[in-house]
Amino acid sequence: MKNEKVANYVKTRNKKLFEQRFKHFQVFIQSPLPEHIDIESVFNEVEYLLPKHFLNLVDVTYIGAFPFLKERKINAMYQDGALYISNEQDDAFDIKDDIIHEFAHAIEDKYGDMLYEDEEIQNEYFGKLKKLRNYLSFEGYDIKGINFFNIKYNQQFDEFLLNDVGYEKLKGFINGLFLAPYSVTSLREYFARGFEEFFLGDRDYLRSVCPYVFLKVNNLVSNFEEDYEYEI
Question: What is the pTM for the complete model shown?
Fold first, then answer.
């Protein structure tokens, strides 16, 4: 399904969407989350974690069993001011992680020039890909014809990492280079995973592994929030 048709699909195919309001968030639920997940607590915590100028980038959130998410084998998506979140979640952290991750993509759309214009994040990412490529070649993986250095998502590269290398083995190769296997797949995912770590993980660890991602996110926060301060 083409991206521009997603919003219309959700609205027309799901006329019985249940609307809820959690402070900043307007949420429409097509299919409920598991009973053990307190949805209000999830959105309240996201609102507590993210600065207001980030929250303002998302107008509405849809939660449900959406075919376009299943077709792409993803749990969440950001598009045109809306979050689309699968209702198939393990626990509260699982959905919170998805929401924060998709906010990262909203921030890329809004502040892309500030993030990428100087190419510091890109150079950091490509430098790590070069090391990973050498590791895999040394270990005997057939890397001929595989383009490691993609700014945008490359399906062949993604499938090589997932199927030929395997995420479990990949974890060993990326220790100290990348935060998670999926963050290897594209520049956008590299940034988004770092954004997650900034708000949900260990900021000192993020700074040591992905210093330019840390600096960019920290600057985006501190430039807009006078009362925000994190020691560098």
Answer: 0.88
